[in-house]
Amino acid sequence: MPLGDRRPAPANLPALCPELRARLAAEGIEQVFLVQVTVLPELLAAAESPLPPADLCVSAPAGRGKTLPFVLPLVQARRRGAPAAGCAR
């Protein structure tokens, strides 16, 4: 589903803790790519699961936001391991 100019804002990533959504906004990230909206909830759920992680293959053109969905769950998990405002359990 092409989103064109209708890419969602980071606020539309409810699985991401409020502190990280605010940080994305502070860094000037006003819209996220379709790959991020699609993959990020899956990876955040996997980070919370007691099961071992499964493989995930993502394909998107260069510069289309593949790295961020893999990094944010790591940052969120780390912050939850050391509670911070907005990310506490």
Shape: globular
CA-based gyration radius: 13 Å
Number of domains: 1
Q: Biggest β-sheet: count, sense, barrel? A: none
The N- to C-terminal Cα distance equals 34 Å
- What is the strand tally? 0
Q: Structural class of the helices, strands and pairings?
A: mainly alpha
Residue fraction in strands: under 5%
Task: List segments where confidence is low: pLDDT < 50 over at least 5 consecutive residues.
Answer: 82-86
Helix content: 40-55%
What's the gist of this structure?
The chain has 89 residues and is mostly helical.
Question: If you had to describe this structure to a student in words, what would you say it looks like?
Answer:
This protein has 89 residues and is mainly alpha-helical. The chain has one domain. 44% of the residues lie in helices and 0% in strands. The chain contains three helices and no strands. Helix 2 packs parallel to helix 3. About 6% of the residues have low confidence. Keywords: ATP-binding, Helicase, Hydrolase, Nucleotide-binding. This is ATP-dependent RNA helicase DDX51. GO terms for molecular function: helicase activity.
